[in-house]
């Protein structure tokens, strides 16, 4: 590791709690971004490192900073299916309705990838079902497109 930001990103990516605590004690820029725009929080979330996510949030990580494609930590966990991390992000102020470069939202990711526990979680916390992505499709349209019967049922209740 040549620098504190690199060490922070590395520790978050691999979920090395001891290294992460050591680096955080040196007060680095908690929201530093790598060449793709990934923050330590995005990396920890995408890799399912719940304890790392907790440490980063406690240290003040911004839950809504997108990568350079517009994907947020919440979008990543909805894609991957990490409901406990999604709940934690929501508790810490994650914006459920942010859109990435193609207009997709966390709810749309959950719908597309059959993460129906996350579809329910997003809806329970007020995700906007009227948002349309770049092709004009809503989460409900995507659920129909994917044949995701459970998501269709959840989305029609709203």
From TrEMBL:
Name assigned to this protein: Ankyrin repeat domain-containing protein
PANTHER family: ANKYRIN REPEAT DOMAIN-CONTAINING PROTEIN 39-RELATED (PTHR24171)
Gene3D superfamilies: Ankyrin repeat-containing domain
Stretch forming the signal peptide: none
Cited PROSITE patterns: ANK_REP_REGION (PS50297), ANK_REPEAT (PS50088)
Keyword Repeat part of the UniProt annotation: yes
ANK repeats: 36-68, 69-101, 102-134
Repeat keyword on record: yes
Species of origin: Rhodocytophaga rosea
InterPro entries associated with the record: Ankyrin_rpt, Ankyrin_rpt-contain_sf
Keywords attached to this entry: ANK repeat, Repeat
């Amino acid at each position: 590791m040549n620098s504190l930001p690199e060490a922070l990103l590395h520790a978050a990516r691999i979920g090395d709690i001891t290294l992460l605590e050591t680096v955080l004690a040196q007060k680095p820029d908690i929201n530093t971004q790598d060449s793709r725009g990934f923050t330590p929080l995005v990396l920890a979330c995408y890799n399912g490192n719940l304890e790392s996510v907790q440490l980063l949030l406690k240290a003040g990580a911004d839950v809504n900073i997108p990568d350079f494609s517009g994907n947020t930590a919440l979008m990543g966990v909805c894609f991957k299916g990490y409901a406990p991390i999604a709940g934690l992000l929501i508790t810490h102020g994650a914006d459920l309705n942010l859109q990435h470069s193609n207009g997709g939202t966390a709810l749309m990711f959950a719908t597309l990838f059959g993460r129906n526990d996350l579809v329910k979680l997003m809806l329970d916390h007020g995700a906007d079902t009227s948002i349309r992505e770049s092709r004009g499709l809503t989460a409900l349209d995507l659920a129909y497109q994917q044949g995701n019967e459970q998501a269709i049922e959840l989305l029609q209740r709203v």
